[in-house]
Each structure stands twice: as structure tokens, then as C-alpha cells.
Design a protein that fits this description.
The protein has 11 helices and 7 strands. It is an alpha/beta fold. The chain has a domain at 86-202 and 238-286: 3-Layer(aba) Sandwich (Rossmann fold). Strand 2 (111-116), helix 5 and strand 3 (138-143) form a beta-alpha-beta unit. It binds S-adenosylmethionine. S-adenosylmethionine binds at residues 7, 9-10, 13, 94-98, 116-117, 120, 145-147, 170-172, 175.
Length: 290
């Protein structure tokens, strides 16, 4: 039975993590990703197995393999940031089918808050319960919309704004309008005690130009996403600027930096041109204790 409301984007990311897990040299191992994809009933075009010779894969499969390679690297980068940060309160916004609450070796006493739509949160809970998975952190899941007021709800669920938090915005900003991205960054600033950190995957910096509008028209027709909604995502705020102005220290990580760090060029065959420039890169920010 397909699960209402578990969007194809969240399932696609989990399918990419399942594929990463199947590689002979995985950067992350997500033992639950394949089951989450299967149980969602949502069809995604990802292959289930990492091919023995990826360079021989059919052309249509190439972009899936590249996407999975990128997601593997992004997941590992954020895992590394969270474990290095060592904060005992973590909040993952737009958590989708994320399994970090079960997967990572968290320091004792870590509390992880996951926030996504009620359907996504319920689906993850049911599937992980059915898999008899045991969380490695004290996990709280919250069904909420980050474009509507959500601060009071997370506080009611036990979140402590007086404690430093490590925030995760992974694959979320590209789905929000520029206005909602700004409001969300402001909410995070308001809910953050000194010592807080955030790791943010940027939305691609699309500028509203006649060429962009033309491309968005085509994309709207292909995907059924209303053109106005796509247009509202152009000219997004730069999280580095917003958080920097609020006194946070900022470190930028480009996709090319990750390719070097994890020795993983984003290429399936030798002739492929790198796709890194299509990705927004990451901003890691820290609100210092003064
Ligand atoms: C591409 S998925 C990424 C999921 C997860 N962060 C990951 O990397 O696996 C985007 C997620 O953001 C969630 N999302 C989108 N808009 C949201 C909103 N306004 N409030 C809460 N969650 C939202 C979607 O439901 C989806 O699960």
C-alpha cells in the first residue's frame, strides 16, 4: 500500500543511501534505507544494487548512480559534523527517512529531534518499530510544517532552547520559498543557545532572470510543480550571510572539498564532466559562547 504523504524526494534520498550501502566501499552504512524505500510503496527510478562495473551502466542509470554518490558523501559529511560537534541536543529539520537516530554512535545522553510532515514521521516510526530497530539516542519525532509557526511545538515536545543545539538542514532549503528560507533561518537563530551549531545544505543560488524563468516554465510542465512556487524559490538568502550577521562563525564546504576529503570524484566514467557546480554546497556555522 502506498503511504500517503511520504514524498518521492524523501524516498529517493533513502534509495540513494541504500545504493551507497551496497557499494564495496561505502562512506555510510544505512541498514534500514532499503526497507524504508520498499515499505513506502513509492516508486523511484534508483537501481537496488550497486553495479559491479558502474562505467558500463546504461546512460539512464548514470544520473542515478551520480546522485547516489553525492548523497552518500553528503550523508557522511553531516554524520562527521554531528559526531565532531558532540552536542547533546540535535534537531534535524525536514528529516525525511533519516535513520541517524538509530545509526550513529551518539554520546550518552544525546537527544535527537526529528521534524517533518506528520505522515513522514509516522511512517518512519512504524517502519523502524516493525524492523525492531533500537534508537542509539533519545529520539523525539514531531509532525510539523517549518513554514508555519513550529517553535512552540518543538519546545512542547521537550526541546530545550537554553541548551546548545546542532541543527541539520539537509536537502530541505531547495523546497522552500526564499521568504520561508529566511524565516526558518531566523527561527533557528531564535531557538539557539550559545554553543549551538548548524550544518546547512544550501539551496542552489538561482537568480530570477528571463533565462531562469524559461527553465522553470519547462521544469513546471515536466513536474507539475506550479511555476509560481518555483519562482518563489529564486534569489534565496545566503545562510552564511544571515547567520554571520547574527554573530555566528561560518565555514564553507564546497562539493569539490568533499570529493577530495572522501576521495570520491563525482564521476561514473572517466569522460564525465563533474556535476558539483549544480549543487549548493554546505555552510557549517557555530554560535560562539562569549
Ligand atoms: C529531499 S527530502 C530530504 C530528507 C532528509 N533530510 C534526507 O536528507 O534524507 C526533503 C524533506 O523535507 C520535508 N519537507 C519539505 N517541506 C517541509 C516543510 N515545510 N516542513 C517540514 N518538512 C518539510 C519533506 O517532507 C521531505 O521529507
Amino acid at each position: 500500500m502506498p503511504v500517503e504523504g511520504v514524498g518521492v524526494t524523501a524516498v529517493a534520498v533513502a534509495a540513494a543511501r541504500a545504493l551507497e550501502t551496497d557499494r564495496p566501499d561505502p562512506l555510510i552504512v544505512d541498514p534500514w534505507a532499503a526497507a524504508l524505500v520498499r515499505e513506502s510503496g513509492v516508486a523511484v527510478p534508483f537501481p537496488e544494487r550497486w553495479p559491479e562495473r558502474p562505467e558500463d551502466a546504461a546512460a539512464v542509470e548514470h544520473s542515478m548512480l551520480l546522485g547516489a554518490m553525492y548523497i552518500g558523501m553528503r550523508t557522511r559529511f553531516i554524520d562527521d559534523e554531528l559526531l565532531a560537534g558532540g552536542l547533546r541536543q540535535v534537531a534535524i529539520l525536514g528529516s525525511g527517512l533519516d535513520t541517524r537516530s538509530w545509526r550513529l554512535a551518539w554520546p550518552a545522553g544525546t537527544r535527537v529531534f526529528e521534524l517533518d510532515s506528520p505522515e513522514v514521521v509516522d511512517f518512519v516510526e512504524r517502519t523502524m518499530d516493525a524492523a525492531a530497530a533500537t534508537p542509539t539516542a533519545d529520539r523525539t519525532a514531531l509532525g510539523a510544517d517549518v513554514t508555519a509557526p513550529w517553535a512552540a511545538a518543538i519546545v512542547r515536545s521537550g526541546f530545550r532552547p537554553d541548551q546548545p543545539t546542532h541543527w541539520v538542514l539537509e536537502g530541505l532549503l531547495p523546497y522552500l520559498s526564499a521568504h520561508d528560507q529566511s524565516a526558518l533561518l531566523d527561527d533557528i537563530i531564535d531557538l539557539s543557545a550559545p554553543g549551538s551549531r548548524a550544518v546547512i545544505e544550501r539551496a542552489p543560488a538561482l537568480t530570477d532572470t528571463p533565462e531562469t524563468r524559461e527553465r522553470l516554465e519547462t521544469f513546471a510542465l515536466a513536474t507539475g510543480i506550479p511555476f509560481d512556487e518555483l519562482l518563489a524559490r529564486t534569489d534565496p538568502p545566503d545562510p552564511a550571510v544571515v547567520l554571520g550577521a547574527a554573530g555566528w562563525s561560518v565555514e564553507e564546504t564546497r562539493v569539490e572539498d568533499l570529493e577530495r576529503r572522501y576521495a570520491r570524484p563525482l564521476r561514473v566514467d572517466r569522460d564525465e564532466t563533474a556535476t558539483a557546480e549544480q549543487r549548493g554546497g554546505f555552510v557549517s556555522v557555530h554560535f560562539p559562547i562569549r
